[in-house]
Design goal:
606 residues; alpha/beta; 14% strand; 11-stranded mixed sheet; 18 strands; 3-stranded antiparallel sheet; 20 helices; globular
């Protein structure tokens, strides 16, 4: 245990009173949280909680907010840029997309922020927690929205999901990065990221430090290299974010204290694997009042359900070839490069005996048939063209193989590492300016923000094929490494939410990264079979990434999912207030293309 952490047993003299000061013993089935001392900041008068003063016009700016000194940004500059990056990575902010007029708001919300690190029992590394407390918070009717970043994003990763809905309504919003995040560690320089986002030396409190035995070159990051398999604890991370919220509220508003799980409304919301995290918290959710999960990455033992690592490595292998069997695919700036790789992948899989056919067209039909047979719909495969273009399946597989197998830095079973790269993809040391921007700019999973995947098997003609075959074998094979990875995956199996907890799922029918057929649909069926109150909205013409609707061809084909997540939260809040029942199941018809209006979105109950 890091001696700089505080245990609740010492809370009588600590700045941060952990769970012992705010949670009745009956309200939790896990050990009380362990937090570092809390830091706080004020955001008013040209700054605010939602956009750091950028507003909608600033968030729409294609250029990131600049640093006065690229190698040494200030804390305020890092925060502003992290918010800009998080908004643009999640939300469709195009004027014709309707954000800020048809749905959503980034009107300035003044208030305070509170930050700390938390750790779950048995974990070696902490996760970030944050509470945003708006000045309009009503202590007489306290409301907290608790959330987890999607993907591997940093602590502001759910600002466009939970913050944008909760803060304008006067709710405090509690966040966790669920022990992933953008706290990269530069192995060459032996520098990490401090609590305030700035680059810091190892004698300071770092959000992630891989330890003295880590290799001397490259880049390490928590999701891949902590050795904790953090996904197995994502439900506990969300719970600890709730505990931190109570501790911060009691510290910030002592005249209205105590705030407890019994007297404070808690609504959990998240998207993608943040949605999976809030569903894991719902299993022991006696502290929660309701849950909304958008496009959740969740696995439950039920017919049709498949773990993320299984279908991601399958897609990573087969999808580049299968797309050649479909016409009129959506286009991105990288589509031409991805198209050029189809024939080599098809030929390599035919040579390996995976596919049939004597030419690319026949091999592509064989790959498409294999995907269809394993549960992929043509709608999901068509939308998956974007994930192939941006190499997302491989990026996820590389990181998650390391996380599930609890491999340390330099020990990846397929030899993958991470580093800054030269134009020829060879590794190099990161610059001070690159290092300084990681915390604000990185998505938490390379490639991106100047950090790339180093694949020792990279070779033409099918450049990444050998590495992907190795990644797939970690699921399908019988070796020691495969058993180790599958053991990690087994630790993720979810259970239905607690009895009586309202849960609403919102998922795009065209989701090609987290297909509904493998996740929300079997989860909802299994939960209902167990007598749980789970509702499911299936949204036609919605894929996984609202942020990519900035690409014209995707905007012409798809609608954003975020307005339906907001609408589900509205319905849940009305239900908790006794004003309406829970929303009914729905398959929602939509009309993509052009300027979105209410008819195009077709939100139920509007």
């Amino acid at each position: 245990m890091n001696p700089r952490f505080l245990h609740p047993a010492a809370c009588a003299g600590a700045l941060l009173l952990a769970a012992c000061a705010s949670t009745p013993p009956s309200a939790s089935r896990m050990d009380p949280a362990v937090f570092t001392p809390m830091s706080s900041s004020v955001h008013r008068n040209g700054d605010d909680l939602l956009s750091a003063g950028l507003g909608l016009d600033g968030l729409r700016n294609m250029a990131a907010p600049a640093f006065a000194d690229a190698a040494a940004p200030t804390v305020a500059e890092l925060r502003r840029r992290a918010l800009w990056s998080s908004w643009r990575g999640i939300a469709d902010l195009r004027p014709e997309g309707g954000y800020g007029s048809l749905y959503g708001s980034v009107a300035a919300v003044p208030g305070r922020e509170f930050h700390a690190l938390a750790t779950v029992p048995g974990a070696r590394h902490p996760h970030r927690v944050m509470l945003q407390l708006p000045d309009a918070f009503d202590a007489g009717r306290p409301c907290v929205v608790v959330t987890a970043s999607s993907g591997s994003r940093g602590i502001y990763g759910a600002i466009a999901v939970a913050g944008a809905w909760g803060l304008p309504r006067g709710c405090a919003v509690a966040y966790t990065d669920k022990a992933a995040g953008s706290d990269y560690f530069d192995l060459d320089a032996r520098l990490g990221i401090g609590m305030d986002g700035r680059v810091a030396a190892r004698d300071q409190l770092l959000a992630f430090d891989p330890g003295d035995d880590a290799p001397a070159n490259g880049i390490a990051f928590k999701h891949a290299h902590s050795g904790d398999n953090p996904e197995a604890d994502w439900g506990r991370h969300v719970r600890q974010a709730g505990e931190f919220a109570l501790a911060a509220l009691n510290e910030a508003l002592p005249g209205a204290a105590p705030f407890t799980f019994d007297n404070t409304r808690f609504i959990a919301v998240g998207i993608s694997n943040g949605g999976g995290a809030v569903l894991r918290a719902a299993e022991d959710g006696d502290w929660l009042d309701a849950v909304v999960a958008g496009e959740p990455s969740i696995h439950i033992d039920a017919p049709g359900a498949r773990p993320l690592y299984d279908y991601t490595t399958e897609a990573s292998m087969l999808m580049p070839c299968a797309l050649a069997a479909l016409e009129d695919l959506p286009q991105s700036p990288l589509s031409a490069l991805a198209t050029a790789m189809r024939a080599p992948r098809c030929a390599a899989l035919r040579e390996a005996g995976v596919l049939e056919g004597d030419d690319t067209a026949a091999q592509a039909r064989s790959a498409l048939a294999a995907l269809n047979a394993s549960g992929w719909t043509d709608e999901a495969i068509r939308a998956a063209a974007l994930s192939v273009d941006f190499d997302l399946y491989r990026a996820v597989a590389v990181t998650y193989a390391s996380a599930y197998g609890r491999y340390g830095v330099g020990a990846h079973p397929c030899g993958h590492t991470f580093a800054a790269q030269n134009p020829d993809f060879s590794p190099r040391a990161a610059t001070a300016a690159e290092r300084a921007a990681w915390w604000s700019d990185a998505s938490g999973i390379p490639p991106g923000a100047g950090v790339g995947i180093m694949d020792p098997a990279l070779a033409p003609p099918d450049l990444t094929g050998t590495g992907i075959t190795c990644l797939r074998a970690l699921w399908t094979g019988d070796g020691v490494d495969a058993q180790r990875v599958r053991t990690g995956v087994q630790q993720l199996a979810s259970a239905p939410p607690r009895a009586g907890l309202p849960v609403v799922l919102v998922h795009g029918r065209d989701d090609g990264l987290i297909p509904i057929a493998f996740t929300s649909a079997p989860y909802a069926a299994a939960a209902r079979a167990a007598g749980r109150d789970v509702r499911l909205w299936e949204v036609r013409n919605a894929q996984h990434f609202d942020g990519f609707l900035a690409l014209p061809d995707y905007a012409a084909r798809y609608v954003p999912l975020l307005p339906y997540v907001y609408a589900a939260l509205d319905r849940v809040q009305a239900h908790l207030d006794g004003q309406a029942g829970l929303p009914a199941d729905a398959v929602i018809e939509t009309r993509p293309g052009g300027t979105l209006d209410a008819a195009a979105l077709a939100i139920p109950g509007r």
